[in-house]
Specification:
This protein is of the alpha+beta class and 571 residues long. The protein is built from 16 helices and 21 strands. The two termini are 42 Å apart.
Length: 571
């Protein structure tokens, strides 16, 4: 892209982010919908076939609307199909059936504290949140169980509990240890397979695709949304899409257009402009390129939460090759393992939630004028390499991104040499001169914690979710005689190993702001008639939080359903 074109695009995006609309800056068909030629007509057009789009299409169809789905990829399911398949549903009927109470007031406090910690006040009617922000989390709680029950009753998506482990019957919430969490177990569900066992994201996609066919909802694959069509009153009345063959088709949507597309992690410019740190990629499908952002800006939508994402570490050397990495580092596997920064110092609880670990890559040192943790180094010994082999990112056999040396000093040299070959992708990031000596002292201190079972620096292994994750990523039969299962001393002799990690995402979670009906909002906070959004393409109701495993798909299902219901009811 020429520099002047790039600058123009950047200015338009920033104007939209500031709530200034920019409808005049980008093309949109407005005020002419009655005289336009339509290639197809329907009541509701749904863009995307992941959890959000599938729920929207199903609920709109069940409400009596004619529905047409368009999907940029050539397969059904989006990033949902790649996921672990969990969806976080507060107060769901399965947990209630087992006597697990999930009171509304406590659930809202838990969500509000994590989503908006800077304004949280449990004594205020809206818990210190802005009215719209509070309304979103309230709508999520109030509709979550109903939506999942309806999906089950209609045969669109059968549910069961997400698998337990580590002595837990149910997977714990990420912040099961907080006092606000009155229901730390039982909220996380999975798709139920035919044999009753929990499935993965591909099973969600399979069940939804089957339901879509049963409801006679056509799906147009290889169709990319280009721009909206609006009537003389400004209401959205249709959508222009580009086909894989290069044709432009115009679809009339008598009641509304619903976007359930992905985020923008694979759009380098949007990634640089909006995310609050240097982020290299994620396991999101390659189609997550932020297609909705310019479309929404052209419609005058107000953007929000653009700085946040569903964070997760990724292997740096894989992200350098392609931002669409094969997998994220959801768990740092192993017990004789630690992560250090360029100074050879630990900076994080290696076993805590991936979303929280990743944000420490964004720490800026104002005196040194550097991102100290831009890259981190997962260091481990032969015990972890052997016993946890195959627990990603640890490899079974050799992997090009795994460094090996006979001593810690040798490992430091190997890391330094590898960084020199990668400086084009890291701004010349390099190890501090004291890295090798500091690494030795860091390992010595860590080993002392492992022997006592208490990590005095980062309290590793003390929360329920850490114990769960460690057990989940521990091969059958693996044993640790140390007092804390997540800690074991690194061996006094090599070989030692290292993997370079960096910040990544599952997907971004910023975009047009929505209301409790999933209607996109304009610069003045008013709904844009006929335009809806849910999933990772909109400003997430969770804001900066990651409430628990499945918070992504859970909110996508609920707000997709709300969008479908509301659109179907428009006349």
């Amino acid at each position: 892209m020429p520099d002047d074109a790039a600058d123009l695009t950047r200015r338009r995006l920033l104007l939209g982010a500031a709530g200034m609309g920019a409808a005049a800056a980008l093309p949109v068909c407005a005020g002419e919908s009655r005289s336009l030629h339509w290639d197809e007509e329907t009541d509701v057009v749904v863009v995307g076939t992941g959890a959000a789009g599938s729920a929207a299409a199903g609920f709109a169809r069940q409400a009596g609307a004619a529905v047409l789905m368009v999907e940029k990829a050539d397969y059904y399911g989006g990033t949902t199909a790649k996921s672990q398949g969990g969806y976080w549903i507060p107060n769901n009927s399965l947990m209630r059936g087992r006597g697990l109470a999930d009171p509304r007031d406590a659930a809202l406090r838990y969500m509000a504290r994590l989503a908006h910690p800077e304004s949280y006040d449990p004594q205020q009617p809206t818990l210190g949140l802005a009215e719209r922000d509070f309304a979103l989390i309230a709508a999520f709680y109030d509709n979550a169980a109903r939506v999942v029950d309806a999906l089950g009753a209609s045969g669109a998506l059968a549910s069961t509990f997400f698998p337990g482990g580590a002595g837990f019957q149910y997977m714990p919430d990420y912040y099961a240890h907080l006092p606000e969490n009155a229901a730390p177990f039982g909220r996380i569900l999975s798709p139920r397979m035919a044999d009753g066992s929990p499935g993965f994201g591909i099973e969600i996609a399979r069940q939804f695709e089957a339901a879509t066919k049963n409801l006679s909802i056509p799906v147009r694959f290889g169709h990319r949304a280009q721009r909206l069509v609006r009537d003389a009153n400004g209401a959205v009345s249709g959508l222009e899409v580009a086909t894989g063959a290069g044709d432009l088709r115009r679809i009339r949507a008598r009641r509304g257009v619903i976007f359930g597309t992905g985020g923008f992690i694979h759009n380098p410019e949007l990634r640089r402009e909006f995310l609050r740190g240097t982020v290299y990629g994620g396991c999101t499908v390659p189609a997550a390129q932020g297609d909705l952002i310019p479309i929404a800006i052209a419609a005058g939508a107000q953007l929000g939460n653009m700085q946040n994402a569903w964070w997760s570490q990724v292997v740096f050397e894989q992200a350098v090759v392609s931002s669409a990495v094969p997998m994220n580092v959801f768990v740092s596997p192993g017990d004789s393992m630690l992560q250090v920064n360029r100074y050879g110092r630990r900076f994080v609880n290696e076993k805590f939630v991936y979303n929280e670990r990743t944000q420490l890559h964004f720490v800026w040192d104002p005196v040194r004028a550097e991102f100290t943790n831009l890259l981190s180094f997962m260091v481990y010994d032969q015990r972890t390499a052997g016993q946890f082999a195959g627990m990603y990112p640890l490899a079974q056999g050799e992997a090009p991104y795994v460094l090996r040396a006979d001593t810690l000093s040798g490992l430091a040299s190997a890391i330094g040499e590898r960084l020199a070959t990668l400086k084009h992708a890291s701004g010349g990031f390099a190890l501090d001169a004291g890295f090798a000596d500091n690494l030795k002292s860091t390992v010595e201190r860590f080993n002392g914690f492992a022997k006592t079972g208490r990590d005095l620096d980062f309290q590793r292994g003390e929360t329920p979710v850490e114990k769960y994750f460690h057990a989940l990523y521990r091969p059958p039969g693996q044993q640790n005689p140390a007092p804390n299962a997540t800690l074991h001393p690194l061996a006094a002799q090599g070989p030692y190993y290292a993997i370079i990690l960096c910040a990544g995402v599952l997907d971004t979670k910023g975009g047009p702001k929505i209301d409790a009906h999933a209607r996109m909002l304009d610069a003045s906070g008013q709904p844009i008639a006929g335009l809806y959004g849910a999933g990772n393409c909109i400003a997430a109701p969770a804001a900066q939080a990651y409430w628990s495993a499945g918070a992504t798909i859970g909110s996508a299902l609920v707000f997709g359903a709300l969008a479908g219901e509301h659109a179907a009811a428009r006349v």
